[in-house]
């Protein structure tokens, strides 16, 4: 049998993100439509610039409870009746809070857009927040808090933000609130938060999918034109950066006696998309360090050592400032060595990147873009996320163009800028600049982790539920 | 109602490789999707987890490809790729820019035809360690992580191919040898045990020509597949397993044997399970979450399988302070009521509308569409199922769903797996019939 010669690849043509049509309604709602032929399920997204900081301190979680109660009954329908109305039209609906704001997601087959928009109108403008349903959402969130504490990746994430952000900053505490605050939330709190913040001013709505034969602006205007603006102007995005903890560069180890793996999160402050020198090098950096099975981290920790199923790194931009996060889990008895190797590899950017590494990152990110943004839901998700970031999807296109010019020199400079601002490599301690949260067997590993000299180690023991 | 009509053209190469092409030029991409007719149900005793460990080795080099090069060569050309292993099959897939299609096929043909030239003890040992970490991460180190493993072991008889999970056991992973790798490849990996689906920016003739060019030279093997098992009957009495330990809240899994995938009875069971526990407006949601307030969440799902049985289950997260026994009893009452009454029109309408949207969403991406096409070509022989599934479900009448529930979801034939929080002061972990 003769082998067939390895084929040569023809490079793909340059690609642009689909272009939106923009329609501004008098009440402040901005509608973006993306016509994507062949996508028969339409994806609707709304981004509301509501801040977690708008929650009263003693009622944190109220925005999340409000979001989850939006479709739990309206002025006309009970919670169960409304659930059935959504389901009979094949509508999937969800809403959730994040640092960037409140997002609503609604998917529906093309033929049911009009009734779906009327249901959306009721969700936004006529929610009844029945006492029993709010109380149920509170109980569900309390159970979820217990789950988050029990799942190692979630527990590590909670410990990370608690260590990384300043204690007075909202970002240091769980998005959905803590046990003490959630347990206090009443129907009145939810109703008031909705009245104050779920208004049309500053809201961006996205409709993506096969729009042929549909007059989407007219349908949206008819359904949501009467949504109150709230009688005020509101920016379409939030702007205030989070405050970091002064002592954020340290290690916190959440004790899990007998744990067969150690969960780890290693993070540092990163840039946002407006960073000097451009955003394009940063996704490349994340890819080369920890974005694939062939990246620097997994080449050692997975493919050479066999300590992990996989560890991933990425830059997570926020509207102002951002994060560089690396997370995964390793075999328990490899914990100190894995942590040592991980910090060494994450710091290795200061020694520079090879042209081949950079080419791989640039090629992967740019050439996968047409496929990553081929479906209605992916386009709508990106559009609303850009809107809450104070941008449009033209940024995706311009960033892809800029990406093609990214070379090793630009990535080296980007790493240096990141490392300097984060304090990585400052002084003799190799862990300088990094916040490290671990969930694992503290008894077994504390001494060895301390001996690495990465930084101060604090052990946290959860009370048994 | 949206008509689903994705074009499908199929051809079988002389060596037995079934090739299916579905043309779609919306994006300059092609989804390449291979399903090989081997999964954990083909594993021999003492070698559980092997099909999946083997799948990992498919990324560690082949005759003309270095270890790790499959990933790096494709990612450099803008491919998103991976592989998965399940009871009935192993699949390998990548979505590539159109210009990289032939490279993808060349790489796939090299490993599907000539893996053994490159397999080494070092690679086997390394990937064995990686798979163990995968098992720890997904199953051993998370609350309720081993629940499905308990369900399979409880619902399926000990000598049945679905009794053990695809991830296998640590002992069996340790026992795997290079000889096993060679034997497994020679027994199962061949064009006549494989389906290749191409969806995207390509015509059928281009697709068939490319498949012939790269896979045509691979040789067929004599397949020694036993016939599939006969349909297992429902269990002949309730069975339960209790795990008492460190979980945030009590959780119940109430599971049943079902008919094999895609049969009218399976679809009727699917409707029944959706009405009872799958829909947001399900009966269990109404009873346990909204009325009794003894549960914070409920779910209902079915798992389509081909070797003589399927699986269906309801899951209930028990509210703090509620009694797990009473919750189980209420759940059984709701099933019995469904068996007596059947679904109403609004419930059937909800199942169809909800399924139609989620099915169309699944088919919206070329990679997931290709995966469903490969699935049905390999396991049920009918790739056109992607176009007919919703219509078939629509044909399930109220009486069909009621009768299927009576036959397959009788509470008397349930298996109950319970994960109970040890703070609730119950007895020791154990199994009881």
UniProtKB/TrEMBL annotation, chain A:
Q: Which organism is it from?
A: Humibacillus xanthopallidus
Occurrences of domain Peptidase M16 C-terminal (ranges): 185-359
Sequence ranges assigned to domain Peptidase M16 N-terminal in this UniProt record: 53-149
One Pfam family name is: Peptidase_M16
Which top-rank group of organisms is this from? Bacteria
Q: Which InterPro entries match?
A: Metalloenz_LuxS/M16 (IPR011249), MPP/UQCRC_Complex (IPR050361), Pept_M16_N (IPR011765), Peptidase_M16_C (IPR007863)
Q: Name one GO molecular function term.
A: metal ion binding
This chain belongs to the protein called Putative Zn-dependent peptidase
From TrEMBL, chain B:
Tell me the Gene Ontology biological-process terms attached to this UniProt entry. Answer: proteolysis
Give a yes or no for keyword DNA repair in this entry: no
Per UniProt, which keywords does this protein have?
Hydrolase, Metalloprotease, Protease, Zinc
Q: Does DNA-binding show up as a keyword for this record? A: no
Report the GO molecular function annotations. Answer: metal ion binding; metallopeptidase activity
Residue ranges of every copy of the Peptidase M16 C-terminal domain listed in the record: 176-352
Q: Which domain of life is it from?
A: Bacteria
Domain (Peptidase M16 N-terminal) spans 18-135
Q: Which family does it belong to?
A: Belongs to the peptidase M16 family.
Q: What is this protein called?
A: Putative Zn-dependent peptidase
Species annotation: Humibacillus xanthopallidus
């Amino acid at each position: 049998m003769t082998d067939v010669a390895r084929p040569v690849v023809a490079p793909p043509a340059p690609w642009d993100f689909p272009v939106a049509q923009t329609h501004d309604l008098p009440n402040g709602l901005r509608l973006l439509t993306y016509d994507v032929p062949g996508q028969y399920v339409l994806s609707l997204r709304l981004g509301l610039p509501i801040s977690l900081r708008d929650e009263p301190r003693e009622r944190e979680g109220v925005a999340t409870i409000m979001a989850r109660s939006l479709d739990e009954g309206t002025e006309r329908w009970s919670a169960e009746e409304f659930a059935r109305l959504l389901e009979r039209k094949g509508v999937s609906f969800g809403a959730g809070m994040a640092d960037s704001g409140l997002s609503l997601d609604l998917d529906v087959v093309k033929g049911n857009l009009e009734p779906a928009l009327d249901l959306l109108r009721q969700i936004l403008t006529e929610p009844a927040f029945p006492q029993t349903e709010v109380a149920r959402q509170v109980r569900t969130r309390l159970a979820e808090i217990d789950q988050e504490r029990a799942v190692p990746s979630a527990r590590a994430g909670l410990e990370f933000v608690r260590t990384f952000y300043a204690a007075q900053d909202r970002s240091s505490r769980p998005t959905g609130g803590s046990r003490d605050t959630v347990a206090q939330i009443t129907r009145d709190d939810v109703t008031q938060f909705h009245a104050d913040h779920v208004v049309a001013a500053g809201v961006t709505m996205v409709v993506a999918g096969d729009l042929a034969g549909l007059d989407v602006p007219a349908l949206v205007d008819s359904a949501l034109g009467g949504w109150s603006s709230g009688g005020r102007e509101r920016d379409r995005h939030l702007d205030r950066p989070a405050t970091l903890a002064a002592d954020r560069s340290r290690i916190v180890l959440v004790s899990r006696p007998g744990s067969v793996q150690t969960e780890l999160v290693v993070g540092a402050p990163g840039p946002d998309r407006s960073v000097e020198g451009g955003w394009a090098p940063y996704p490349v950096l994340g890819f080369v360090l920890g974005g694939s099975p062939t990246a620097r981290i997994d080449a050692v920790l997975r493919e050479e050592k066999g300590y992990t199923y996989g560890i991933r790194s990425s830059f997570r931009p926020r509207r102002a400032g951002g994060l560089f996060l690396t997370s995964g889990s390793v075999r328990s008895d490899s914990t100190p060595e894995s942590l040592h190797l991980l910090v060494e590899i994450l710091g290795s950017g200061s020694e520079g990147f090879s042209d081949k590494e950079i080419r791989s990152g640039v090629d992967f990110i740019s050439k996968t873009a047409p496929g990553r943004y081929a479906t209605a839901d992916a386009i709508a998700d990106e559009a609303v996320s850009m809107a809450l970031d104070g941008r449009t999807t033209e940024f995706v296109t311009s960033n892809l163009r800029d990406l093609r010019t990214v070379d090793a020199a630009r990535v080296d400079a980007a790493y240096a800028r990141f490392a300097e601002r984060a304090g990585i490599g400052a002084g003799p301690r190799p862990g300088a600049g990094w916040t490290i949260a671990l969930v694992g067997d503290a008894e077994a590993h504390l001494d060895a982790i301390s001996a690495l000299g990465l930084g101060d180690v604090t052990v946290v023991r959860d009370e048994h539920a | 109602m949206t008509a689903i009509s994705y074009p499908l053209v199929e051809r079988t190469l002389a060596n037995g490789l079934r090739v299916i092409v579905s043309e779609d030029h919306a994006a300059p991409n092609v989804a390449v999707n291979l399903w090989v007719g081997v999964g954990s149900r083909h594993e021999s005793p003492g070698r559980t987890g092997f099909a999946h460990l083997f799948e990992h080795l498919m990324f560690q080099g082949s005759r003309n490809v270095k270890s790790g090069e499959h990933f790096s060569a494709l990612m450099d050309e803008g491919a998103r790729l991976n592989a998965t292993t399940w009871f009935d099959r192993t699949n390998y897939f990548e979505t590539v820019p159109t210009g990289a299609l032939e490279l993808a096929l060349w790489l796939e043909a090299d490993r599907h035809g000539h893996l053994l030239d490159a397999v080494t003890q070092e690679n086997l040992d390394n990937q064995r360690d990686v798979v163990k970490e995968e098992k720890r991460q997904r199953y051993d180190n998370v609350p309720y992580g081993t629940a499905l493993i308990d369900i399979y072991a409880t619902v399926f008889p000990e000598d049945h191919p679905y009794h053990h999970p695809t991830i296998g056991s640590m002992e069996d992973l340790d026992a795997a040898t290079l000889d096993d790798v060679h034997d497994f490849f020679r027994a199962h990996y061949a064009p006549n045990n494989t389906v290749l689906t191409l969806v995207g920016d390509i015509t059928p003739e281009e697709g068939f020509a490319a498949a012939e060019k790269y896979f045509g030279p691979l040789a067929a093997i004599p397949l020694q597949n036993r016939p599939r098992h006969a349909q297992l009957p429902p269990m002949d009495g309730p069975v339960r397993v209790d795990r008492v330990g460190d979980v945030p809240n009590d959780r119940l899994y109430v599971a049943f044997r079902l008919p094999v995938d895609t049969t009218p009875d399976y679809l009727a069971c699917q409707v029944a399970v959706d009405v009872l526990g799958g829909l947001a407006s399900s009966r269990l949601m109404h009873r346990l979450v909204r009325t009794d307030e003894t549960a914070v969440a409920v779910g209902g799902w079915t798992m389509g399988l081909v070797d003589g049985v399927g699986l269906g289950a309801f899951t209930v997260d028990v509210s703090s302070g509620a009694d797990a026994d009473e919750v189980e009893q209420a759940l059984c009452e709701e099933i019995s009521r469904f068996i007596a009454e059947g679904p109403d029109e609004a419930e059937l309408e909800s199942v169809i509308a909800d399924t139609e949207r989620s099915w169309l969403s699944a088919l919206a991406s070329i990679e997931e569409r290709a995966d469903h096409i490969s699935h049905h070509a390999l396991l049920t022989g009918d790739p056109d199922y992607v176009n007919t599934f919703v219509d078939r479900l629509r044909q399930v009448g109220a009486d069909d769903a009621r009768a299927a529930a009576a036959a397959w979801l009788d509470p008397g034939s349930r298996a109950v797996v319970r994960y109970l929080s040890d703070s609730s002061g119950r007895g020791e972990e154990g199994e009881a019939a």
